[in-house]
Design goal:
By secondary structure, this protein is α/β, with parallel strands linked by helices. It is built from 9 helices and 15 strands.
Length: about 450
């Protein structure tokens, strides 16, 4: 008995150690380290060995008790009263494992101890209870046991809010944000040197003073905040981690929207579509088709070539617009954008139909990124989207490594037991170094497509 008590005590200490490791990682909102993973594996191996030994000792204990009980029953039959009542069997009953009179055990407590701590005693009681219920031949359904058929909440499968994310921002040239300052100044040559044929020897050569204009790129702050009760964090399961992940997703989506659509005023970035001096292509069509849109895309590509003197290397469009082009067919009902990477005949594009972001599709030889942050509310009917053809090296996005950051403040409303969570990052974006490296396609031919 003393050995059994020692093993049970050691098993309880192992459970407390495991809880401490998991609680510390949860409080710090992080994954387990490699050392912690190995430590947990070692603790589990030792716990399994202890459970096996404890079970063996308890079985021996039960056997001893049953033998002692049998001896007592045999001895009782030697009493005169028992002999007088020879041939008479007295049937007694034993209360069920979780009967009301056994108020020292709890079904729910045993479920918890068995599932999370591997308590062999609780596991044995649950098994005995299962056997007892197996002989109860009743027609009851789960409705009869509303307090026992408990719902299972799979907190590890909790679904975050679906967000558009940052497909376009991830295609920009990523640069580190300077450690200080709220603006980044970039020099742009706006008046270049001149050159001409020298009229004659010793004549003056062509000379024009080079002049630049500063391109000022503001550093913006993007943030999301939540206030949670300590009860929700401490008594809930993964509440703070789920909310933190959603806030970081919100910040990422807003950043991407700013890269595309920022107005440049009221604290916003200056997005791709609002940069002054970009190439504009208008597609006007009451009955738009994929084949007609293809010619506009080629026009946008050639305008970048002609004015930037360098090639575009990316097409950005809304998922609905790529689907419209993939649904387009020729006179023989053959798709114009084929869902294969093999070299097809007379196709204007290739790539899979399903996908979001960097889909693997290409049109006119340029990769296509789909982004739900692309506007779909342009034009008189506020139902037109746009297409952007860009040169990625000219889109500069300055960010801190590891952004967005998470801040947890527990004292801002400490008297209310309120915890404030904030996800934030600093970022600066510019597409203004070479506006000619952007071509924007818009017009009535880009209204909501029909399929």
């Amino acid at each position: 008995m003393r050995l059994l008590d020692q093993l049970v005590e050691e098993r309880a200490e192992l459970s407390e150690t495991v809880d401490g490791i998991l609680t510390r990682a949860a409080d710090e909102t992080r994954d387990l380290t490699e050392a912690e993973d190995k430590n947990l594996a070692d603790l589990k191996a030792r716990a399994d060995a202890l459970d096996e030994r404890i079970t063996e000792l308890r079985d021996i204990q039960v056997q001893n008790l049953e033998a002692a009980k049998l001896r007592a029953e045999v001895a009782a039959t030697d009493e005169p009263e028992s002999r007088a009542a020879a041939g008479v069997v007295n049937v007694t009953s034993e209360p069920l494992t979780y009967a009301e009179e056994r108020n020292n055990v709890s079904f729910f407590q045993d479920m918890y101890q068995s599932q999370f701590y591997g308590d062999p005693t609780a596991t044995q009681r649950l098994a005995r209870h299962r056997d007892e219920m197996a002989v109860e031949h009743r027609d009851g359904t789960s409705a009869n046991f509303a307090g026992l058929v408990v719902p299972q909440y799979l907190t590890q499968l909790a679904a975050e809010l679906a967000r558009a994310g940052r497909p376009t921002a991830d295609q920009c040239t990523a640069l580190p944000l300077p450690q200080a300052g709220l603006s980044i100044e970039v020099s742009r040559i706006t008046t270049g040197a001149s050159a001409a044929v020298q009229a004659a020897e010793n004549d003056a050569v062509s000379e024009t003073d080079v002049d630049d204009t500063l391109l000022s790129v503001p550093v913006r702050t993007l943030a999301s905040g939540q206030q949670l009760s300590r009860q929700a964090i401490e008594r809930g399961t993964g509440v703070d981690a789920l909310i933190a992940a959603d806030m970081m997703g919100a910040v990422a989506t807003v950043l991407d929207d700013q890269v595309l659509n920022g107005s440049g005023s009221s604290g916003q970035m200056l997005g791709i579509r609002n940069v002054s001096g970009i190439n504009d292509v208008t597609y006007t069509d009451a009955s738009p088709t994929a084949a007609e849109l293809y010619s506009k895309i080629v026009d946008g590509i050639q305008q970048v070539n002609s004015n930037r003197y360098a090639g575009a290397d990316l097409i950005i469009m809304h998922p609905r617009r790529l689907a419209f082009m993939q649904a387009g067919v020729d006179g023989s009902n053959r798709p114009l954008v084929v869902p294969t990477q093999n070299v097809p005949q007379n196709a204007m594009g290739v790539g899979p139909v399903a996908g979001y972001g960097n889909t693997g599709a290409s049109i006119a030889g340029l990769p296509v990124v789909t982004d739900a942050n692309v506007t779909t509310a342009q034009g008189a009917g506020t139902n037109q989207d746009e297409i952007y053809i860009v040169r990625r090296s000219d889109l500069l996005l300055f960010e801190d490594a590891g952004a967005p950051a998470m801040a947890r403040m527990e004292q801002t409303a400490g008297l209310n037991l309120t915890v404030t969570l904030v996800s934030y990052q600093y970022a600066a974006f510019t597409a203004g170094r070479y506006p000619a490296s952007i071509a924007r396609i818009g017009g009535t031919g880009l209204v909501t497509p029909t399929f």
